[in-house]
Amino acid sequence: MVAQDLDRLHTHDLELGTTEATQKHIPRNVVPPRRVSQRRLDFEHSRPRWLRECIAEATGVFMYVLPGIGAIATFTLNATSPIGASAYGSLLAIGFAFALGIAFAIITCAPTSGGHFNPAITICLCIWQGFPLKKVPRYILSQIFGGFIAALVLMGIYHQQIGEMKELLLAAGKPLVANGAPASILCSFPNPGQSMGYVFLTEFICDCFVGFIIWAAIDPANPFISPALAPLMIGMGYAVMAWSFGDVTLTMNMARDLGPRIVAAIFFGKEAFTYMNYSPIAILASIPATLVSSAFYEFVFRDSVSVIQSGHAVHEDGDEALARHITRTTTVEGFEDKH
């Protein structure tokens, strides 16, 4: 080690690491990182943008699905434990696992891809916010792939425990695909006797609620939420619905359901898609529901002038057109107030 390396820290400096995030909040300095080489810049420039976006979407879904289904696995596999399932997990723990997983996914992957992680969000952003139509199919496929990989990883981690549960159920003549069975670790299944109309209505309402929260959280004109707080608030929107209606049967995301459901079909049979004719609701309901809630926000709550003033949008005909609009609407409002 060179002597100058030993002396590079002054008493008021902080070493490189997570302390870099604190340099804007405390008066101490962080040791400057190594200079960026031209080789590094050339490498980063050569990476295909579309590939990075797809990988980010897949990684984001993986990061939130894995802890979520992991929490479900902990609860399900210990349901018959003498200690009791509550000692290992609960609906509360499952909700927090999904919520924090979503927040972590947004924090880590959204700077690259925009952080959709849900086909319904991708479709709605295309309709309302101008997200490029040509990117929609590859974003959706990447999201489904992320959920698929998360489910495969979970099956690998819990292979022994799931195998033991499978043997016990087969010996007892019980199904492997049902609510509370091994397949339900990966994707949702309704309770016996539940009406599919009732399940669809519950799913639709919960997805509308979550979609509305997301649209409010990503509105740059919303003064009550900062960009730093948005990931957690979006995650908590999912958690609140899981805590409230999780026992009814929810998925709230096509990618979260379809990818793991394919894995469930691989390991537990095609009944994963045919059980009580539920899978179309789980896979597709979030799309029309999010369209409804985002449309409601766009037509009732969106204030485009505030968005433009915040610097996040521009008038399509330029600043002069915006000035004419403001002058016209202000004059009309002032005239109405006087009369």
Automatic annotation (TrEMBL):
Pfam families, per database record: MIP
Transmembrane segments: 54-75, 87-110, 139-158, 198-218, 224-246, 281-300
Annotated GO CC locations: plasma membrane
GO molecular function annotations of the record: glycerol channel activity; water channel activity
Entry membrane topology: Multi-pass membrane protein
InterPro entries in alphabetical order: Aquaporin-like, MIP, MIP/Aquaporin
Superkingdom assignment: Eukaryota
Keyword field: Membrane, Transmembrane, Transmembrane helix, Transport
Location of this chain's protein in the cell: Membrane
PANTHER family reported for this sequence: AQUAPORIN 3 (PTHR43829:SF14), AQUAPORIN OR AQUAGLYCEROPORIN RELATED (PTHR43829)
Family to which this protein belongs: Belongs to the MIP/aquaporin (TC 1.A.8) family.
Protein name: Aquaporin-like protein
